Amino acid sequence: MKTSQGIRIKTLNEVDILRKAGKILSSIVLQLQSSLSIGISTKDIDRKAEELIRRHKVVSAFKGYRGFPGVACISVNEGVVHGVPGNRIIADGDIVSLDIGIIYEGYYSDTAVTLPVGHISPEVQRLLEVTKSSLARGIEQARVGSRLSDISFAVQSFVEMHGFSVVRDFVGHGIGLKLHEEPEIPNYGRAGQGPLLQEGMVFAIEPMVNMGTHRTRVLSDGWTVVTEDGKPSAHFEHTIVITAQGPEILTK
After folding, report:
1. How far apart are alpha carbons 151 and 115 in whole angstroms?
2. How much is the pTM?
3. In the chain, fewer beta carbons within 10 Å around the N or the C end?
4. Distance from first CA to last CA of the chain, Å, rounded?
5. 180 Cβ contact list (under 8 Å, min separation 6)
6. Residue 217: enclosing H or E segment and its boundaries?
7. Measured at the alpha carbon of residue 177, what is the angle toward residues 221 and 139, in degrees to the nearest 5?
8. Which is nearest to 120 in space by CA: 224, 26, 36?
9. Cβ–Cβ < 8 Å for 237, 204
10. pLDDT, tens digit, for every residue of 131-159?
11. DSSP string, 55-100
């Protein structure tokens, strides 16, 4: 069933499949985290991700999507999203964003995490903590009877209260039978706006938070997005379902 805004309401059976997909994806990401180390290339990380996806007998949601060459988007330091795996070597003090999606029994799951490698500065550590906490605050608003922009407002207000900025050019999204379904979920906006949230809606909520300006640019590969000022960026994402009891994180 779709709402008047084109948002698909998932059945209990669909939610159960998405729950299983989320469990597999979170397991893949946990295993991938353990392979992060100083001296590894982003291409090496992507190969490990592909091996884990194969081992779990699921399909990459990203590889080949609109021509994307990897199974994981790997963004380092000033990288915001959609980082193309390549020859970049991970160094002490880097932060690495891993954004991965899979397809399980025809349904998509999507998650992202930003991880420190070695010793990072206190300010970069605070960026990671604020971004992760802003995701939790956004998810908390994904309740029956709330408005879509309540999620956006919760993220933006928390981030800006801590002196950071939210990316405007890229947003969260509905997810299910497609990687990107209605609605778009910005990480900024006024509360109380947009569609009324209903039980069975499934969203990928994903704050992208910059230490400096919110502005971004795309590199010559046509994919990799970086901060305009070259300052660090962090990205955390969960796929969630709205239930009568509140939001349930499927990729936890």
Report:
1. 24
2. 0.96
3. N
4. 26
5. 173, 174
6. strand 216-218
7. 80
8. 36
9. yes
10. 999 999 999 999 999 999 999 999 999 99
11. HTT-EESSTTGGG--SSEEEEETTEEE-PPP-SPBP-TT-EEEEEE
